[in-house]
């Protein structure tokens, strides 16, 4: 606790909070997280041709009746999308979801849909100039990483296909992360439905600072030609779980670096208070649940927060 308070009292806000917390947890095991360095700056290419769309951004009703916004509200616009197995908010500037929310139960995870017939696709729900594009990922060196996994949407083909919209995707390191540690974390969340009746999970990207000399800087790559989609430095999953026969909730959060992670690294090394992830992401999770003793308990105090890599190695992942 002393390490956390010292850091909060005298350092940067937002992402720096998580960096300090995660680094203090893992410094005995490995070097501080180093994100993939961005390429050397180059002259920005001309933007691609823009499609026609309604440029009148929606504004909060109580903020538009003034002289300054007489000719329109500039934004920012956060596109909200509701689909069969998830809801999300999309960040037009970064071309990534800000968050993707799911509700998992033993029953709604059942199904026989197979990802073999699913294809990644651009999302026409987003105006053309702000879409992530399939060509952005082509030969980028990154996987198209699901926030709501395809394996969480097996109930029918339509639901599974919806998980392949690029609005549910962000660039992830493939080997050792998207195909391994992150996939096993997704399986861990699904397996929570064996111990809880309702599991709510919110996943998303983070862009956290790293220390360079005496300064904190945020560096992230942008893929596409012209550059279009931001590559997150980290990803989070926050979880709220409930048993019908018990009062209160179990709550937990994890923030993982977007890089290869050794399977020997314990999941608890990435466990963080929700408040730390909220501060870094600029989000508020499960705001209708009062966080006080007797109402919420740490998830890892209720169950063992451990990824069983060996047991899941032979499982057919049903498509991440």
Q: What does this molecule look like?
A:
- Helix 1 runs antiparallel to helix 2 (15-26) and helix 2 packs across helix 7 (274-281).
- The chain has 320 residues and is α+β, with helices and mostly antiparallel strands.
- Helix content is 20%, strand content 21%.
- The strands form 4 sheets. The chain has a 7-stranded mixed sheet, with helices on both faces.
Give a brief outline of the structure.
The chain is of the alpha+beta class and 320 residues long. It has helices at residues 2-10, 15-26, 134-137, 157-162, 174-178, 181-191, 274-281, 299-302, 309-312; strands at residues 78-82, 87-91, 96-104, 143-146, 169-172, 198-206, 210-212, 215-217, 222-223, 229-230, 234-242, 249-257, 296-298.
Keywords:
320 residues; alpha+beta; two-stranded antiparallel ribbon; disordered N terminus
């Amino acid at each position: 606790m002393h390490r956390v308070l010292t850091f909060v009292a005298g350092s940067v806000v937002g992402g720096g909070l998580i960096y300090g917390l995660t680094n203090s947890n893992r410094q005995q095991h490995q070097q501080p997280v180093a994100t993939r360095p961005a390429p050397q700056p180059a002259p920005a290419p001309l933007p691609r041709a823009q499609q026609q769309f309604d440029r009148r951004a929606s504004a909060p009703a109580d903020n538009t009746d003034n002289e300054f916004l007489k000719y329109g509200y500039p934004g920012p616009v956060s596109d909200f999308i509701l689909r069969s197995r998830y809801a999300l908010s999309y960040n037009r500037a970064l071309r990534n979801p800000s968050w993707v929310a799911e509700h998992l139960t033993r029953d709604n995870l059942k199904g026989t849909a197979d990802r073999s017939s699913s294809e990644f696709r651009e999302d026409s729900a987003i105006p053309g100039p702000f879409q992530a594009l399939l060509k952005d990922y082509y030969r980028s060196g990154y996987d198209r990483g699901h926030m709501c996994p395809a394996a969480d949407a097996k109930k029918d083909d339509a639901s599974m296909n919806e998980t392949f919209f690029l609005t549910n995707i962000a660039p992830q390191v493939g080997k050792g992360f998207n195909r391994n540690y992150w996939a096993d974390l997704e399986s861990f969340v699904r397996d929570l439905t064996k111990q809880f009746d309702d599991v709510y999970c919110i996943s998303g990207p983070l862009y956290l600072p790293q220390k360079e000399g005496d300064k904190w800087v945020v560096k992230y790559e942008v893929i596409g030609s012209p550059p279009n989609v931001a590559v997150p430095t980290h990803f989070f999953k926050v979880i709220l779980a409930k048993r019908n026969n018990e009062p209160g909730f179990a709550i937990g959060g994890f923030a993982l670096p977007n890089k290869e992670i050794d399977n020997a690294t314990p999941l608890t090394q990435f466990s963080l208070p929700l408040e730390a992830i909220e501060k870094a992401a600029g989000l508020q999770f499960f705001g209708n649940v009062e966080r006080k003793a007797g109402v919420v308990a740490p998830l890892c105090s209720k169950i063992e927060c451990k990824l069983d890599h060996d047991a899941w190695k032979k499982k057919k992942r049903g498509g991440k």
